[in-house]
Amino acid sequence: MHAPKVTFLIIGAQKAGTTALEHCLRQHPEVGMADVKEVHYFDDDGRFAAEPGDHGAYEAQFPGERVAHGEATPIYLYWEPCCARIQRYNPAMRIVAVLRDPVRRAYSQWNMEFNRGDELCDVEAAFAAEVAFHQQHPGAQHRVLSYLDRGFYSTQVQRYQRHFDAEQLLWLRYDDLLNDPQGTLERVHRHIGVDPGQGAVGLPTLNRGAYAAPLDPVLEGRLRRMFAGDIRRTAQLTGLDLQAWLGSAG
Length: 250
Description:
alpha/beta, Rossmann fold, five-stranded parallel sheet
């Protein structure tokens, strides 16, 4: 039986340093990253309308022999069907997820979409539109109107914990990636099974867009209260210290 070529995935979260992490892994001589970041294979619902007969086209996007092959598509954490598809492709897959303060993450995603011109509403109106969407379509997912929904991590974490053993899952904090990039990168190296003594040193600054204005503190407080319960559940599930995300809601 054909052994799966792809051995690890960076599954998210969006706006949590995955571009910088992917860039660093690409420098490691034992790692074979996909031709492009964000392959969007396992979130392609059309492709998986019927289970693919083989994954040759996917695996062709990776270089020749390496110790580990992987890619980074941040929506894999959020998009519900991805997890089971990944597990069916490679039950031994090593998973890396970087979690960011959901309030800051939501604001960063809105800022990215707004700067692109894909979001025309100000941040409060955009968040309100998302809330209205989910009220009208309970349980639905949306690739853009997910500023807030992507930050409710506990359901996403539990989904992966149901499909993969604990030792296959590496949960990281975005702050650790920023404050201890080398130590965090070496943890990733060990997790995916490559020599932590090789590869990139330090973390580049990539995909950081300028902000038109700081996040309004009243809106921030409201969001922190909204996320507080889920932050506590996520901390329990992952073992991460997420107290700082609670702010005054803690």
